[in-house]
Amino acid sequence: MNPGLCPEQAFWSRLSGPQQAWLISQLEAQHAPPAGGLIWSCEGIDIGWVSADRAQDMVALLPGCSIGRGRLHWKSAVDLPLQRSQALQAFLVQQSAKGRLTGWRGEFFAWWPDTPAWPPGLDVPPFLCIERAGFRHLGMMSHAVHIHGFLPQGDLWCGRRSNHKATDPGLLDNLAAGGLTAGESPLTTALRELAEEASLHLPDPGRLRGSGVIRTQRSEPQGWHDEQLLVYTLHLSERETPINADGEVQEFRRLSPSEVVSCMQSGQFTVDACASLAQSLAWLMASSNANTPSGKVG
């Protein structure tokens, strides 16, 4: 192996051709929603996707909702984002009280239209801000940060999610990851998750390097999962060992590149960890082809 390779290049160079091809195939992480549901919009802006029965709940319980031409339209009586959010939040409270919305977190997520560029334009005020569990319930696109911790020779530190997690319990995951809560920047979220999940405190945030954005979509028991993953890479030294601090990770494993891909292929990793790793490596290759460094986040 070329000693001049960066950790991501070292990881890539240690994979076989079929493993490389499989990993790149994980970039195709968007899927069409299942048949029978409806796209719903507000003020002419498409917000999300809901099943037919959930659409009927919205018509019955959310003032201003109607169905026409195979779509659900919400004509909010208010224009201000705060009031609009309060109206939608009240609907979610009713859904929770009826047992139709589970996994209430007491945490707010913000919703913006799709922002494919890096860094995303999340400094723009959100269109909506509601309970985190409501995003899958209403098929709305959320945002999350995903951080990959590469060692010098290309090995990867990976966390195993706690068996008590509501989502993907016991599966392998990135070094750290977390949803972007309302009012928090991607970089702040990344630094917080590193500290909480891996006990890694970075005095120099510049060590985190932005590796682009990938959007993942799929059906989940709670509804339609739609999320933009804001991907970061972190180069770790041999002296830096992650240790969980918040109980959300039951163990950390140091895996070789071949072990990572083999575990991914056998379904031992979360879907989003596979997609975000593929994005991280694709970003590196695109940057290398352009003869420019990968995007450094300040």
Structural overview:
The protein is of the alpha+beta class. The protein folds into 2 domains: 7-30 and 142-289, Nucleoside Triphosphate Pyrophosphohydrolase (Alpha-Beta Complex); 38-137, Transcription Regulator spoIIAA (2-Layer Sandwich). Helix content is 30%, strand content 27%. The protein contains 8 helices and 13 strands. The strands form 3 sheets. Strands 7, 8, 9, 10, 11, 12 and 13 form a 7-stranded mixed sheet that branches. A 4-stranded mixed sheet has the order 2-1-4-3, covered by helices on one side.
Quick synopsis:
The protein has 298 residues and is of the alpha+beta class. The chain is 30% helix and 27% strand.
How much helix, percentage-wise, in residues?
A: 25-40%
Order of helices and strands: HHEEHEEHEEHEEEEHEEEHH
In angstroms, what is the radius of gyration?
A: 20 Å
CATH architecture group name of the largest domain: Alpha-Beta Complex
Main attributes of the structure:
Nucleoside Triphosphate Pyrophosphohydrolase; alpha+beta; 298 residues; 2 domains; Transcription Regulator spoIIAA; 8 helices
